[in-house]
């Protein structure tokens, strides 16, 4: 899968809005992550105003859930700084994807801010899948 920052930010927006509300804190973090990834405030505002559909979270396969989790964490780390509020937000989104929030700490150990540096994705996925809620 090719890493598309805008597409993954759109998924992040959809996940944040899956409870029918993007809280102001979530919006602020989405803007921060967007800015860190070279996406302008205007573009993020437009994406927040009308996110492209990704389908129901319930219909995502476990592989798709992992991919979104992986890219979410990569987006969070992209600017080389990780704030506690970003970790909490990622844990919140991970739970919406069906993972226990501890998955963020586990996967974060193996995801790098530079998308050209790749971890053993199969190993990371195996570890992440242990955090899926039954």
From TrEMBL:
Protein's organism: Chryseolinea serpens
Annotated protein name in UniProt: Tellurite resistance protein TerB
Domain of life of the source: Bacteria
């Amino acid at each position: 899968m090719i890493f598309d920052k805008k597409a993954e930010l759109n998924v992040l927006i959809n996940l944040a809005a899956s409870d029918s509300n993007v809280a102001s804190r979530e919006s602020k973090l989405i803007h921060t992550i967007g800015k860190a990834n070279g996406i302008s405030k205007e573009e993020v505002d437009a994406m927040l105003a009308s996110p492209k559909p990704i389908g129901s979270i319930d219909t995502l396969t476990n592989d798709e859930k992992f991919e979104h989790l992986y890219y979410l964490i990569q987006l969070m780390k992209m600017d080389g700084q990780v704030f506690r509020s970003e970790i909490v937000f990622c844990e919140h989104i991970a739970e919406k994807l069906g993972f226990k929030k501890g998955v963020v700490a586990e996967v974060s150990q193996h995801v790098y801010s530079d998308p050209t540096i790749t971890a053993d994705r199969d190993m990371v996925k195996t570890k992440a899948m242990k955090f899926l809620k039954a």
